[in-house]
C-alpha cells in the first residue's frame, strides 16, 4: 500500500506488533500520517496491515480524525471504529481488538495528547 505525500507540517509513524521478536510477520501493523495546521488535523491517513490478506486504509478512522484537535478522547473514539465491518475467523478473532489498541497507540505516538 502506498500513502501519497502530504504537505508540511506532517507527523507520521509506523508500528508493527509481533508475537515474538523472532517472527518477521506482524500480528497487526498501523501507519499513521497526520497533517496538522493551527492545532487541527486537516488530513489523516491511517493504514493497517497484518490483520487481513492485504493492507488497507482505515477510512472510518480518517474521517473521525479530520477537522478535530488532537486529544486522548479523540484517539480512543477513532480507534473504536478501526475494526468496523471486520469478519474475524475463529482463530484470529483477537486481532480486531488488537487492531483497535494498535491504532490508538500509534495515534497517541504520532499526534500526542493534550
From TrEMBL:
Domain CO dehydrogenase flavoprotein C-terminal positions: 12-110
- InterPro entries from the UniProt entry: CO_DH_flav_C, CO_DH_flav_C_dom_sf, Diverse_Substr_Oxidored
Name the keywords, alphabetized: FAD, Flavoprotein, Oxidoreductase
The domain of life for this entry's organism is Bacteria
The molecule here is called CO dehydrogenase flavoprotein C-terminal domain-containing protein
Give the organism the record lists: Nonomuraea rosea
Amino acid at each position: 500500500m502506498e500513502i501519497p505525500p502530504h504537505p508540511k507540517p506532517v507527523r507520521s509513524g509506523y508500528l508493527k506488533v509481533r508475537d515474538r521478536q523472532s517472527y518477521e510477520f506482524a500480528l497487526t501493523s498501523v501507519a499513521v500520517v497526520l497533517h496538522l495546521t493551527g492545532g487541527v488535523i486537516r488530513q489523516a491517513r491511517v493504514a493497517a496491515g497484518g490483520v487481513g490478506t492485504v493492507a488497507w486504509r482505515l477510512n472510518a478512522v480518517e474521517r473521525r480524525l479530520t477537522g478535530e484537535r488532537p486529544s486522548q478522547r479523540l484517539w480512543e473514539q477513532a480507534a473504536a471504529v478501526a475494526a468496523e465491518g471486520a469478519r474475524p475467523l475463529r482463530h484470529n478473532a483477537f486481532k480486531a481488538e488488537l487492531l483497535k489498541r494498535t491504532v490508538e497507540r500509534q495515534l497517541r505516538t504520532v499526534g500526542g495528547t493534550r
